[in-house]
Fold:
Amino acid sequence: MQRFWSIATILAAVCLAAACSSVRSNIILNTSSPELFGDQIPRRIAILPFKSPIGHPHLGENVSDMFTTEMISVPGLSIVERSRLVNILKEQKLGLSGVVDMQTAQEVGKVLGVEGIIFGSIGEYGQKLTRGTFSVGMESTFSISLKLVMVKTGLVVWSASATGSSPKSKSELQSECISKVVADLKQKLKAKK
Structure:
């Protein structure tokens, strides 16, 4: 009988280890490139602070910083530094929280001397209770929507949204969603070279 419990304990440990090692995030990426950059490819862009969801007032700024950090690795692309962006917005009396529509984004882009502006919003951020057949757990949720607007024309040349859920932490899921969105934009920029 003791041998039975030893084998059962080992099997349970192996199953638990296998389940933990295969934790995956479920991320759905939707993208659109209606104008596919036309004849121009933006080489100098500004990334505005993203709109935060209710209850998380600084999340938009944090996520836009993470997005900017990932975008810095795109070859041939220069990004306006965040402190310069904030100073210019203050000089022009434009609040960071109000920069979510295309017209304002275009105005900011002209002042900054950039070809493209990326702006977006965080739709969902949190955790929810999940129930499985044999377990109860927590699942992180995150969604983000972004647009790249050409300053000269005001056209949206790329948009993307990523929605994810995962038993991983909120910050891990957030990072995975951002990586997927950045990978898509990198690929589209590379294809237009």
The first helix runs from residue 2 to 21. The first strand starts at residue 26 and ends at 32. The chain is about 40% helix and 30% strand. Helices lie at 2-21, 59-71, 82-91, 102-112, 170-191.
